[in-house]
Amino acid sequence: MDGLDVQEAQKTKPVGAGGQSASSQAGVIGIGLAAVLTFSLAEGSWEWFAAYIGVTLLAVIFSFYRLPPWTPGLRTTYMQNLVAYSMVLGLCVAIALAPVLQRSAWLFPMSDTRSACQKLGRYESLRTQASLANLAGRDSAALAYAQDRQRQDAVADCLAATTTRWLPAYGLGAAVLVALGAWSLGRARSRTERN
Fold this sequence. Notes:
Order of helices and strands: HHHHHH
Low-confidence stretches: 4-19
Keywords: Membrane, Transmembrane, Transmembrane helix
Oligomer: single chain
Number of domains: 1
Structural class: mainly alpha
């Protein structure tokens, strides 16, 4: 029995300071898969729960994954890990930002898209009015509510579709920033340890 306990301890022991166990690398792959599924299964308007999912995935990555020590060269294990790490982080950041991008003109400054979505909303409002014209004499408040609801839904869906089209660009930008930051930090840490 003692021999089995020693073998189990050796299997679960981390590789060393900054090293990676197989479970943490598999965890990052799982997080990336969760982010991809969240992104691909999102339908309609980006809701705030997507931001919660993105932030949760970021917290899991920061808590359980560490890049290996910096090594020079483009074909090193460090670079492979850095690319995967930064791409997954970029995807999680994009998912976390999606509801904010959809709703904020300052973060997603596409005035033509926003005005086109507003026009689509007005069209849907008119269409609702035409389809429910018999309610106008009976309950004008209900008709106004239905028009407003249809307008809001049409605008949100239009902005969500545009946001989804542009999320890869935001995710790639976040991935590049993460990669540059992590590479610089790892390189500086390596220099400090050598001195």
